[in-house]
């Protein structure tokens, strides 16, 4: 990994601090580097302002002159009553160079942010960064596909069950896996379960990790009826396009909701927590419309595998050819 790619990856890691509190804006990371050392950094603040570049440049002050700004997303070029255009802030900062990891698909910026910076005599370069794109996945999907990124979480036994035959499901996985799930909730704008899960388990679906309770996502239930107090109703998987301000949707189940989202071709990411137990109970999925076994191959690619206590986690992403 060359120097620019390394700094962009560092900015992408920094951007994780913004998610999901930056909504409705994307979580962006920015790092100012001078003589090989970080002189300032920033990430999008809660509510979406100030932007990452503004935070980093304000922290650096005059020291920004001659530095290189690494930013995960192209600096915005549009004026807003909530704050100035970041491209203008960059132009006035005295930085010598700007390296951008992902161009902004927002038509208000889309290339014009970089063009404005170049017009000011500053070297501005686009270095496509997988790390930056991954850090902005929900924002990019919402811009390109008009819906949130959907992560489906399944906690399974070795025989693919999510509960005993009696319906008992607490707990399939151990404490480490459950803590990881809560961390994933904290990175989501909204969390969804099926109506049957709400009726059977009355789940809290909050974040129960020290210091992260305020990051508990909005609670949604997949139902054609009314949602109870503290819940919002989603009539169908396709209705996620109308979830205003939601870039990251975490679907926790049960089997009906998971099957419905898979049948609609609306799952972008799978988190599979597998416990070393056999229960002979209720399967995780129903028929989601797969026409042939051959059609099941090539739909998912493994992105991560790790051990969480006695449980195993596998993370899969849908391949580009997956149905939409």
From TrEMBL:
Q: List its EC numbers.
A: 3.5.4.26, 1.1.1.193
The reply to whether Metal-binding figures as a keyword in the UniProt entry is yes
Q: Does the keyword NADP apply?
A: yes
SUPFAM superfamilies (UniProt xref): Cytidine deaminase-like, Dihydrofolate reductase-like
Q: Which UniProt keywords apply?
A: Hydrolase, Metal-binding, Multifunctional enzyme, NADP, Oxidoreductase, Riboflavin biosynthesis, Zinc
Top-level taxon in the UniProt lineage: Bacteria
State the free-text cofactor note. Binds 1 zinc ion.
Q: Which GO terms describe its molecular function?
A: 5-amino-6-(5-phosphoribosylamino)uracil reductase activity; diaminohydroxyphosphoribosylaminopyrimidine deaminase activity
Q: Where does this protein act, in terms of pathway?
A: Cofactor biosynthesis; riboflavin biosynthesis; 5-amino-6-(D-ribitylamino)uracil from GTP: step 2/4; Cofactor biosynthesis; riboflavin biosynthesis; 5-amino-6-(D-ribitylamino)uracil from GTP: step 3/4
* Cofactor field: Zn(2+)
Q: Where in this chain does the record put each CMP/dCMP-type deaminase domain? A: 2-125
Q: Which reaction does it catalyse?
A: 5-amino-6-(5-phospho-D-ribitylamino)uracil + NADP(+) = 5-amino-6-(5-phospho-D-ribosylamino)uracil + NADPH + H(+); 2,5-diamino-6-hydroxy-4-(5-phosphoribosylamino)-pyrimidine + H2O + H(+) = 5-amino-6-(5-phospho-D-ribosylamino)uracil + NH4(+)
Question: What family is it from?
Answer: In the C-terminal section; belongs to the HTP reductase family. In the N-terminal section; belongs to the cytidine and deoxycytidylate deaminase family.
Briefly state the protein's biological role: Converts 2,5-diamino-6-(ribosylamino)-4(3h)-pyrimidinone 5'-phosphate into 5-amino-6-(ribosylamino)-2,4(1h,3h)-pyrimidinedione 5'-phosphate.
Write down what this protein is called: Riboflavin biosynthesis protein RibD
Gene name in the database record: ribD
